[in-house]
Amino acid sequence: MTGTYILRFSSPVSWHKPLRARSAEHLITSAQHHRSLAKARLLRGATSLADQLAAVMNENASLTERAIGASCASGVGWNGEKRGNGDLAAVLETFHSLAVPDELVIATGIAARKTREPITLMVPLIWLAANRHGHPTTTESELPVATIVDEVPMYSLDKHTRLGREAIRRFASENDEVRATLARYVPAARHNDAAYMAAFYADAAPLAIKLVWKGADELEAFGTETDLLLSGVPPEGFAPLLAALRNNLEHLNEVRARVFVQQRCAGAGVLSILPAG
């Protein structure tokens, strides 16, 4: 799962613009899928609602443990399914008792009911974590240089679009460094999945302004690790594959531009940039 949530925090820091953060995405991805949490997911799912809510309340528990507890207790399942014994209202009340702002609790409830996606429940948990050791701050980072073709940034052709996936596949077969890195670390059947995810982290995932709080970097690393593992990349291949993609972004964007222009010439136009089915 990938996505960006826009967060606003009440603090002495004057933020006049919405802050884009991927912390909720990293948290739900890890809580859902990281192999090290398989037992925790199984055990927490078998406990009572009271115990699940207690896990959310436990400020000494890890953020992922609290995330698993919130998802189990809410009735909003890992893939959007509703669990019969869940109590979303009780989870929202728990957030309220932990001093999460009323407007955030209300927004979370609306989002959870409308989308049935457990990522919505991660935002209050991130708020709690970010404010636990004082007010969070922000940092600005330099983004990869964007290639623009017909007013379309080529980083938008990522793993979430059919045209982006086609471009990444071509790039991975053409580029010597990336092809060799995939061959060394990733099973052949997973080369495409690994390339899609590594390309996403190379130039689609970076943010110009990021939220800084104690534990944010560790959560980002854990979420990235989870995504790469799910894509078939072993731990020893994380750094080499990400480095190979970042070293060859110019080539990747050349291929994206070529595929994009070819599709335009074929008469498909911007209709080619559609979510991958």
How would you describe what is shown here?
With 277 residues, the protein is mainly α. It folds into two domains: 5-135, no CATH class; 148-272, no CATH class. The chain is built from 13 helices and six strands. The chain has helices spanning 23-33, 38-45, 49-57, 63-74, 88-97, 102-115, 122-132, 162-174, 176-185, 191-204, 216-230, 238-247, 249-265, and strands at residues 5-7, 19-21, 137-140, 148-149, 152-153, 209-212. A two-stranded antiparallel ribbon has the order 1-2. Strands 3-6 form a two-stranded antiparallel sheet. Strands 4-5 form a two-stranded antiparallel ribbon. A hairpin with a 2-residue loop joins strand 4 (148-149) and strand 5 (152-153). The radius of gyration is 20 Å and the shape is elongated. The chain starts with a strand and ends in a 12-residue tail after the last helix. Residues 1-18 and 269-273 have low confidence and may be disordered.
